[in-house]
Amino acid sequence: MSRHGGSSGGPGGGGGRFGGPPRPKLVKTSGQGIEYVDYKDVESLRRAMSPNGKIYGRKRLQTTAREQKLIAQAVKRARFLGLLPYTSATL
Q: What distance in Å separates the CA atoms of residue 33 and residue 43, rounded to the nearest whole number?
């Protein structure tokens, strides 16, 4: 049993003493990982970013290192093309 009585404690981690509901995953995978992250799919990429425009880390997104690189690359491409903002001033 966990020290705080929850299965996955921590802020916003879902369940536990301080946790809220579980966070939705960015991309639904079929066990083999994701092959390609589309930079034109702005709504999916926004879920990988904070309200300030920063890309969330691997632990929060529950992705592998390779998947995180693909997500970061897609976000950077979308920013360059003007599909996503660099900062929160335009979010």
A: 20
For 72, the domain range is: 42-90
Q: What is the pTM of this model?
A: 0.65
Please name the residues in contact with 75: beta carbons below 8 A apart, sequence gap of 6 or more. 39, 45, 48, 49, 55, 84
Contact 16, 25 (CB under 8 A): no
Q: Does position 40 have pLDDT exceeding 80, yes or no? A: yes
Question: CB burial class (10 A; 0-12, 13-18, 19+) of residue 48?
Answer: buried
- The token duo for 31 is 């066990």
In the chain, how many domains are there?
A: 1
Is residue 79 domain-resident? yes
Identify whether 21 is part of a domain: no
